[in-house]
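Hello everyone,

My group is preparing for a crystallization screen and wants a predicted model to guide construct design. The compound we'll soak is zinc ion. Before spending weeks at the bench, it would help to have a computed complex in hand. I've included the protein sequence and the ligand's SMILES below. Output in structure-token form would be ideal because that's what our pipeline reads.
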Amino acid sequence: MSGPAILKLIQGAEVYAPEPLGPMDVLIAGGLVACLDPGALDLGRAELELIDGRGKLLVPGFIDGHVHLLGGGGEGGYASRTPELMLSDLTTAGVTTVIGCLGTDSTTRTMASLLAKARGLEAEGVTAYIYTGSYRVPVRTLTGSVQDDLILIDKVIGVGEIALSDHRSSQPTFDEVARIAADARVGGMLSGKAGVVNVHLGDGERMLTLIERILRETEIPAKHFVPTHINRNQRLLEAGSAYARQDGGRGRFIDLTTSTEPVEGRSCGALLAQLLQAGVAAGSISFSSDGQGSLPRFNAAREYAGLGVGKVDTLFAEVRRGVQEYGVPLEVALQVITSTPAAYLRLPAKGRIRAGADADLVLLDRNLEIDAVLARGEILVRDHELKRLGSFEQDVMDTLQRKQRFMSN
Ligand SMILES: [Zn+2]
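Reply:
Good plan to model first. Here are the tokens for the complex, ready for your pipeline.
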């Protein structure tokens, strides 16, 4: 027989679905989780691939809800445009579902390109969706309408990132943002999608006020808004915490960006513990990486040292930090990159380990290091080793090696 086995059995891993289920076997059939704890199996002549999970933890594949798949940046001129994401940037970070967006630049980065990139990543093995739109309002779309994009284009699951309260935003009015949210809501209803609006918040004083006004003055429910970069500064963090606690947290979401500089020395892992302590429900908090965006870098003396590129692997690194350094229970911390984004992005096959869900799975060792990654049942990382590269990744690595010979130490 050739090719990978259709049936796989992960044996004896401690399952966090994300709720803790204890040690058990998990049977994978094709791209799906067939059943948990299958007991004795009589598979006849079917070929079964065994994956030893003993002493390890099995968790849902991670969802990164805000990544600049095409690269972003550009705010320091053309030479500051950041590079495109590659498959292994996701898989080595345990990310099996990614949502792509444009950023500040929606002129040289286009929706058509973003859609093609998402389809490319999907063909390479992970699940990828996109937000239609841009920082700028009126938003860039594929068909000319947010609502039509949602209804007609399978990969479009929301709008974003719309920039508010930022010197780089297009300073959209109440009416403009309310209309975008309304289109997202109705487009989502007609297509069975979430229809969320991913809102980039800058460090301006208005913070969440425009969103709050829309919730007050229109019929649009809060669940359509995912305000992100809430950990940009202390003031916004406090406003976000208060926002997320309103209505008992029902349908309220805030998103923290893992690749940015810590707020007063506290990175996302610490902030998660702090928000939970302040009474924000775990189900109201998510993390995203803002991967491939441009990031100011600072040297040891805290001086600006040029631009860097946001990394997707900060996503789980901050969840791990929350668990290992700040005592957040693993099953709670995991929610922010699994079940919570799956719920507000309305991706029922994602973010949980259960029969019938997509076999998007991460095997962690006891130190919470990524040991194996499966996406739709395919093994992309195993025994800490990459088993699949995206198109041209080998070329990129070969070229890098060649260039390294030209670098002095
Ligand atoms: Zn942003």
